[in-house]
Amino acid sequence: MSPENSIVMEEGKGSKLTLDGGFIRQELFYLLKDEKDVHFAFGNTQGNGINKASQGMHSSKFCLNIAGDTPSSNRLFDAIASHCVPVIISDEIELPYEDVLDYSQFCIFVRTSDALKDKFLIKLIRSIKKDEWTRMWRRLKEVENFFEFQYPSKEGDAVQMIWQAITRKVPAIRMKLHKSRRFSRSSVGRERVLNSMQLPKNFW
């Protein structure tokens, strides 16, 4: 793999591996530990771990974002802030603003089962040419403000994007609420009729 396609794999803020995400990280470590230009950054709070992890992400072209204990991951946002193209290894990750943001323009998605195949990940990243990476990197820089919290809030920052996302959800929630009321009168009327009827004991 050429130096242009250097990769960083960041471990969790605590070095303990847990659940499926920990298993995947451990398996990938064994698959990638001898590969050239694959660097492992341990972002724990002890010593200078977080700074070293941040430096590793800033100096790499690709950052592995591996499934963890939660549907989303801080590693993804760290990668975006570092202008490091995220390689997302997860089948279930939930991404903010995905109804208006096409993550495939600046992220690479890999199924977990594929990532655990020998040489699959390395070959995939090797296949990405400089022009393609540059397009993703430029798009990454265009969207990074969407993930930054600022005070006071500015147009296009994370606070504004979150409120816009909530606003987009309101009509669907309102529609669901209105639909739930369709038969409210019928239900009440039915209960009144049933309550007025003389039914045998133990009928229900």
Automatic annotation (TrEMBL):
One of its GO terms (molecular function) is glycosyltransferase activity. It comes from the Eukaryota. It holds the Pfam family Exostosin_GT47. One of its GO terms (cellular component) is Golgi membrane. Transmembrane segments: none annotated. It is found in: Golgi apparatus membrane. It is a single-pass type II membrane protein. InterPro entries: Exostosin (IPR004263), Exostosin_GT47 (IPR040911). Residues 21-122 form the Exostosin GT47 domain. Its main location: Golgi. Keywords: Glycosyltransferase, Golgi apparatus, Signal-anchor, Transferase, Transmembrane. Belongs to the glycosyltransferase 47 family. This is Putative arabinosyltransferase ARAD1. It comes from Vitis vinifera. The lineage of its organism: Eukaryota, Viridiplantae, Streptophyta, Embryophyta, Tracheophyta.
